[in-house]
Amino acid sequence: MSAQKFLQDLEKKLWTAADKLRSTLDAAQYKHAVLGLFFVKYVSDAFDIRRQELIAQFQNEDHDYYLNPGDYDSDAEYQAEIAAELEIRDYYTEKNVFWVPQLARWETLQNNSKLPPGSEIVIKNGKESVYTIRSVGRLIDDALEAIEKDNPKLKGVLNKQYGRLQIDQAKLGELIDLIATIPFVHESLQAKDILGHVYEYFLGQFALAEGKKGGQFYTPKSIVTLIVEMLQPFSGRVYDPAMGSGGFFVQSEQFIKEHGGKLGNVSIYGQEYNHTTWQLAAMNMVIRGLDFNFGKEPANTFTNDQHLDLRADFVMANPPFNMKEWDTGVADDDPRWQYGKPPSGNANFAWLQHMLYHLAPGGSLGLLLANGSMSSNTNTEGDIRRALVENDLVECMVALPGQLFTNTQIPACIWFLTRNKKARGTLADRSGKVLFIDARNLGYMKDRVLRDFKSEDIQRVAGVFHAWQKGEGYADEAGFCCSATLEEIKKHDFVLTPGRYVGAADEVEDGEPFAEKMARLTAQLQEQFARSSELEGEIKRNLAGLGYEC
């Protein structure tokens, strides 16, 4: 079975099964319950894989860790020594595998989650101790607490709320059994790839289930992919100041792997205000084995910047659109407002300037904003946009189709900015020019309310952008893309809506003379009017037969 088919079958099976268990919790709570257990499953499985490696090494006389059976008086003594060695933490940490205490190992959770309250189990971590089961939720919380205690890197990352969930405890036991069925074996996929995919899929499904609130932690994959494909973050520092669950980092990892790059060449920096979302992002990174710096704590990007000295090579974000009352506690002369103080009533240009402030001299940024940011002259917004254009910072504007987001119907666009448009490497000199792309007609309706990009849509937009950057093979296309000069933008009063520049697409001539076409269409319309009249009469007669007149 291909990897793609394997993953598609798996995600459908798991979501269908998991959704049946969601009877008493809302999607937001259930999300944390499911994803937290995914995390325990991952660290426990990674721990078990390392244990199996060690057992093989202890018995391999060519390996440095070999334990010679001849050195022991009996096989029982030999097996006891192997068991003792398996509990030495350094064997795991040397391979960047999290140490999982026995209470938190998956087999402990699965084997004991059906026990009645008051049951006692023996836990052996070097020395034996007795653990008393109070509830499944409390068992999971204590398991998470034990993982955090033994792995300082995970401090504060795990959501220990299971004991307080208003859910039938038996449902948690069923959830553990369900997650235990995830097959982590495939000929071309590693265990962390499979679980990482499932984690991301569930994030998307939960975002749909939560509706408007779902957009606070999840950006649709196709939009994230489009921005990543355009910016191509092969190496350097990648930063997202409104990271949600970390989608841009996950997609950057995917991009690097697909293009043969090295993950170690990228450093990840993020910030998130919502505590539980910050935890989701941290787990998302750990599951994929990605190092990250999300600051000391969840915090407000505007009032408690966690990366003050960071200058990133790539900055990507999907912040809340048109956020109001964002500037309490922010100084009017904050150094980030180099191009003008953003208005209190809208944070769009605050996000943009914050990202620009953290951009390295040769760096690039991609930012999703509401369409109003391209044309608004409310308060200082028009002046800031003009300053950005006049300083030649805007590189590309992309107008997106509607209905791409689960949480809002507000039309959106992507701003791409760079501090350096001069020729360098494979890039041509783009000084004094801005590329406009009108992608509103791309994509397809994936269901009744949501639109999505096809892979070829993403490649088309990214391909045009890269051709323009390199000065090779690019040409304006009416209705789709246009390279405009700063003088032309000035004539449009610094409005950056792509539709103003790309114009209308050329109509394809169908060869039918105008007079003949009008005659044909008029006759067709008359037939439809006549049919409409017949149906109206028929409906009225039927209603009259039932005693209703209209």
CATH superfamily of the largest domain: Vaccinia Virus protein VP39
Fraction of residues in helix: 40-55%
What topology, given as strand order, has the largest sheet? 4-3-5-6-8-7-9-12
Shape, per Cα inertia axes = globular
Whole-number tally of structural domains: 3
Largest sheet: 8 strands, mixed
The CATH topology name of the largest domain reads: Rossmann fold
Order of helices and strands: HHHHHEEHHHHEHEHEHEHEEEEEHEHHH
Helix-strand makeup class? alpha/beta
Proportion of residues in extended strands: 5-15%
Number of helices: 17
Which consecutive residue ranges, at least 5 long each, have pLDDT under 50? none
> Span from first to last CA?
61 Å
| CATH class label of the largest domain | Alpha Beta
Tell how many strands the DSSP assignment holds: 12
Task: Give a structural overview.
- It is a single chain.
- By secondary structure, this protein is α/β, with parallel strands linked by helices.
- It has 17 helices and twelve strands.
- The termini are far apart.
- The mean pLDDT is 89.
Question: How would you briefly describe this protein structure?
Answer:
The chain has 550 residues and is α/β, with parallel strands linked by helices. The chain contains 17 helices and twelve strands. It has three domains: 3-198, Ferritin (Up-down Bundle); 212-500, Vaccinia Virus protein VP39 (Rossmann fold, 3-Layer(aba) Sandwich), CATH 3.40.50; 513-549.
Topology:
Elements: H1 3-20, H2 27-58, H3 75-85, H4 90-93, H5 106-112, E1 120-125, E2 127-132, H6 136-150, H7 169-179, H8 191-210, H9 221-231, E3 236-240, H10 247-258, E4 266-270, H11 275-287, E5 312-317, H12 348-357, E6 359-370, H13 381-390, E7 394-399, E8 412-418, E9 433-438, E10 444-445, E11 451-452, H14 455-470, E12 481-485, H15 486-491, H16 498-502, H17 514-545
Parallel strand pairs: 3-4, 3-5, 5-6, 7-9
Antiparallel strand pairs: 1-2, 6-8, 7-8, 9-12, 10-11
